[in-house]
Amino acid sequence: MPATQTVPAAARMFLSGNDAVARAVWEAGTRVAAAYPGTPSTEILEILSRYSGLHTEWSINEKVSMEVALGASMVGARAFCAMKHVGLNVASDALMTMTVTGTEGGLVIAVADDVGMSSSQNEQDSRYWGRFAHVPVLEPADSQEAYAMTLAAFDLSERLKSPVILRLTTRICHVKGVVHTGERNEVEPKGFVKDPRHWVMVPGNAKPRLPTMFEREAAARAEAEVSPLNFHVEGSDRRIGFVTSGPTFMHVREAFPDAPVFKLGLSCPPPLESLRRFAATVDTVLVVEETEPLLETEMKAAGIACHGKDVLPRIGELAPDVLEPAVRRLRGEVVPAPEHVPAQQVFPRPPTMCVACPHLGVYYTLSQMRNVIISGDIGCYTLGAGHPWNALDTCISMGASMGTALGMDKGRGKVDENKKIVAVIGDSTFMHMGMQGLLDITWNRGNVTVLLLDNRAVGMTGGQDNPGTGRDIHGEETTRVDFAKLCEALGVKKERIHVLDPYELPVLFKALREETKIEEPSVIITNRPCVLIDHYQPAKSYTVEEDRCTGCGNCVEVGCPAIHVTRRDKVVKASGKEVDLSFVRIETSACTGCGLCVQPCAPEAIVHADPVQNVQSVQFVRK
Amino acid sequence: MSKITNILVCGVGGQGVMTATEILAEAAISLGFDVKKTEVAGMSQRGGVVTSHLRFGDAVLSPQIAPGEADLLIGFESAEALRWSHMLRPDGVALVNSGRIVPPIVNLGLFDYPEDPVAQMRALGLTVHAFDASSLAIQLGNIRLGNTVMLGACADRLPFPAEVLRDAVLARFGTRKPQLVEANRGAFEAGRRAVGGEALAA
């Protein structure tokens, strides 16, 4: 990643929602910005790290990032943290007391909900946190608003002395639009004021502060009634008036250009009196919100009749093609058949592991083991649940592979007595929330074999640095964690810790077989880097000698996307058993010579390609 | 409301779908249009499905193209073009790279690759211009030029002159990799010729 670069001056720029938030955070004079990578929020901090005049960091998890931001706010600096929706679950412990202390320097929390679930384990509505923590929530509808509302959020935070949640969705973060930007305003921190009644949240100090939280909420509610972020768009077709928050505003305006709309930007606390007045001007109110019926419930509780999730889906995005038929049905109209061609059935194309991915060796090995339960985690290696490996049995939350493995071990009955329990976790996830689970395993004498896949990157989000790479967000050298020592310090016996090359299948297989036999915690650390990071060195590529390939298909079981089946056949063995054959070729231009497929090839049909072609891979162009 | 142009670009993660759409967006911006661009690309870097929506006109609201609303479908891979063919307007045009990227799931024998995706699209009554952009790019010296070849192929079917898009392509390389400007100029024109674009413009 480049170090700080020259920042473009105020201009008309083509920015994603993430770009726009980053730009505004910088312009707001923010001094500290922290995050843990998570789709779709990752780019905010990546972009911010290229600006100068502020401290940016990848924190080890979202809770720490929020605490870092709070500390900066305590000394009077403007502060920012960003995370994906599930990250706020992790950070919520800090949030729920931060709302009692309140903040000093403006503090904005950007949380990105993956509505539509393009890259997450669940779909949750972060707007609940605003209600739960009694903090204001701002919801932009496009990049320009993401920019403007980020600036507004800092002002609001400082007026109310409250953290402010900026709620984004995938359809804000990853949509590019035209944005008019400004320049940075330096804000000098006022300095830390020692005041235990404000900052030391023991019951005696916290209890008197609780009313301030509700007074602040009342002030925010009053502000929401008059805020220019909440407005009424007139419309001639008053059969249905729409209430929207976030990106649904654009979808509603697109689908129903003549309808009146009440647009909420400061949506929590909701301006119920303004909404009541709006409702009186239309025949029927329809609340269009992603994803939970939050505003709908609040409006109904306030006695404002409205429709919402009774006619709209509770799952996924509310794009125009979803809204139109639902609204027609609400109006009692017939939904016309579409004029376009119907959707065609095509094979699924799930994400794959990369050519030469070090995880291929791990999952090939796991797929060859019997009587094993594999507790998984969150990262590229979650793909091990797919074909051809089918070698991952659970995926819940960051770090959960550890605790669930221990629970399986302690809870198993006779039927699972002879099963081996393996937990698989990546380097960054281990440090995010896995270390504590490993400590729990050792402390409570669990019988779990941990595979710690150290590929020296936060792979799935684009290869960001972490404490295991020894580089910070700017790519500059810093402290590097030693995983073997760390595991030893967490109580794993030194002789139960192995650092292995995942490209050496027999070594990996032997270590796994031996460690799963021993009834105590062990850790196998694999040490090959992610093939997508800058430091990856490709080796000589391979090819298949056609006349030697027997069609056994062992290499296909490795799961490398550079291996292609050219011909299928069937043979009947002497035993009478029918066997499928798959003859293969290697896309030599994509192969980077890891040698994984060579190892299970009995007839030695896979050999170095000579001369090595220089054509680059279509599928996996390294950055 | 004035006419909005909707372009859907689809392909496989790593092919440069998002970059190509970005360049199309830059061309539209250079003409003063309001532009929105959006992707569904959660894990697309890992060889998954990727689509990029581009909408431009006087004022764009929703960033998403609804099914049956795309004026132009640019398919970087033939099965992907077929997958997204329902997004085309009945009178829209598809420009398709007939080259194939066969995923492991097909190699494992779990699913079949469609026999002839382009023929299947035509049988649906769609207007399809198809050619092997991947092979053309390799002939031109680098598979990565496939991206520019496809942009060339769509250049004469935009509501602005092909030269505007060509300049946007070259401007991108001019600042980042000036040594690649000429190769991309050639790739762009080769793409135009492959679908009879120049004749169309004349």
TrEMBL record, chain A:
Catalysis: reaction(s): indole-3-pyruvate + 2 oxidized [2Fe-2S]-[ferredoxin] + CoA = (indol-3-yl)acetyl-CoA + 2 reduced [2Fe-2S]-[ferredoxin] + CO2 + H(+)
Binding note for cofactor: Binds 2 [4Fe-4S] clusters. In this family the first cluster has a non-standard and varying [4Fe-4S] binding motif CX(2)CX(2)CX(4-5)CP.
Entry-linked PROSITE patterns: 4FE4S_FER_2 (PS51379)
4Fe-4S listed as a keyword: yes
Record flagged with keyword Kinase: no
EC number: 1.2.7.8
Function text: Catalyzes the ferredoxin-dependent oxidative decarboxylation of arylpyruvates.
Protein name stated in the entry: Indolepyruvate oxidoreductase subunit IorA
UniProtKB/TrEMBL annotation, chain B:
Claim: Oxidoreductase is one of the keywords in the record: yes
Database matches in Gene3D superfamilies: Pyruvate-ferredoxin oxidoreductase, PFOR, domain III (3.40.920.10)
InterPro entries: IorB_Oxidoreductase, Pyrv/ketoisovalerate_OxRed_cat, Pyrv_flavodox_OxRed_cen
Keyword Oxidoreductase: yes
Ranges of residues in domain Pyruvate/ketoisovalerate oxidoreductase catalytic: 13-192
UniProt entry keywords in alphabetical sequence: Oxidoreductase
Alphabetical list of PANTHER family matching this protein: INDOLEPYRUVATE OXIDOREDUCTASE SUBUNIT IORB
Name of the protein this chain belongs to: Indolepyruvate oxidoreductase subunit beta
